[in-house]
Amino acid sequence: MSSANVVALGGGHGLYATLSAVRRFSTDVTAVVTVADDGGSSGRLRAELGMIPPGDLRMALAALAGEDPRSRLWADVLQHRFGGNGALAGHSVGNLVLAGLTEVMGDPVLALDELGRVLDVAGRVLPMSPVALEIEADVSGLEDDPRVSRVIRGQVAVATTPGKVRRVRLRPTDPPATEASVRAIERADLVILGPGSWFSSVLPHVLVPDLAAALAATSARKVLVLNLGPEPGETAGFSAERHLHVLSQHAPGLRVHHVVVDSASVPPGSEREHLARAAALFGADVVYADVASDAVRTHDPAALARVLAALAGGTDSSDRKDTSSWP
């Protein structure tokens, strides 16, 4: 087990996959989680209580929970979602627990740390900002004239829009970062961004000024993990290259050491050449590896862990275009 200090940025199922991988080789993990969700249980609690949306934070805690039976039981309980048709229908237990802890303790970070102790979390889970954020996007293809863009607000609305997302912003403008998340990035050995919903889970991190500054200042090795494919709504029709161009447009000064891509997602040939040129925008090399699960199209935690652990240890992949043969 490595002592590498790892920070993973993201949200939702993408961050859950990253954390499930990272915990296999490090016991010093910090998750920095997006707080823009406005749908489902999180959206209801955000609207009713004025709190930051807890759902992605809860999932990160569950991903880092201890392996002993008690911790796993609590992780399962926190992930449990109520059924039925009453007021609790659709709420997850963990969201309600975090809401209660936040009200009692008066601070969402203290609430997350306390619940982390209950779960014997291997590290720490932090919100990217102490305030709930709203995603605002310029979307084309919703008007008769394809050149005309319409402003769409809200994470759920952006994720499900039938149009083409051109650019996203955060509201409030220039939101604050959680101080602890900035410190974690500054002292990290390895920083991982992605995979996840590109416009609502990945890009928001580079749009918070203090987080962007910390990413620029840190001496950590920085790794970008690409999605296995485009997502309906947000990135329908996107190539791997297009994902990188969009990130570069939103964070033109961002520097990254490695871009991890599933070998089967980008077949050898001209597409890989285009992707290499896009990665060069960040000063990065492309690391190809078999990181997809055979059963479902999600990242396999064990396979992703092997690649990330090697990169954390400083393995030079610049002359290894395909690392699918890594042990």
Task: Give a description of the structure.
This protein starts with a strand and ends in a 15-residue tail after the last helix. It is globular, with a radius of gyration of 19 Å. With 327 residues, it is of the alpha/beta class. It folds into three domains: 1-34 and 128-133 and 172-327, Rossmann fold; 37-124, no CATH class; 134-169, no CATH class. The protein contains 13 helices and ten strands. The model is unreliable at 316-327 (pLDDT under 50). The protein has helices at residues 12-22, 40-49, 55-64, 69-79, 93-105, 108-118, 155-160, 179-186, 198-206, 209-217, 240-250, 270-280, 301-312, and strands spanning 2-10, 26-33, 123-127, 134-140, 149-153, 164-171, 190-193, 221-225, 258-262, 285-289. The longest helix has 13 residues, at 93-105. The strands form two sheets. It has a seven-stranded parallel β-sheet with strand order 3-2-1-7-8-9-10, sandwiched between helices. The protein has a three-stranded antiparallel β-sheet with strand order 5-4-6. Belongs to the gluconeogenesis factor family. InterPro entries: CofD, CofD-like_dom_sf, Gluconeogen_factor. It is found in: Cytoplasm. This is Putative gluconeogenesis factor. Its main location: cytoplasm.
